[in-house]
Specification:
The protein has 67 residues and is an all-alpha fold. The protein contains 4 helices and no strands.
Length: 67
């Protein structure tokens, strides 16, 4: 998972990922997950929901494409 596609990490790339998800994904592209936790902590409930929705959409579409 170290090489995530730009539509999941780049704020300027086209795609359906929420900006909150992209922010967390970029923060987690290191050797540890500490950055992800730091970015998530100040998020509001609405921002966390947007992130969770993008994560779920990504997992479901990945699974559907690779049965």
């Amino acid at each position: 998972m170290g090489d995530m596609p730009p539509e999941l990490t780049d704020p300027g790339a086209a795609g359906g990922a929420s900006s909150e998800f992209r922010r967390l994904a970029r923060a987690g592209l290191g050797a540890s997950t500490d950055g992800t936790y730091r970015e998530c902590e100040p998020m509001t409930a609405v921002e966390r929901r947007a992130t969770a929705n993008t994560a779920l959409d990504t997992l479901v579409s990945y699974r559907a494409a690779r049965p």
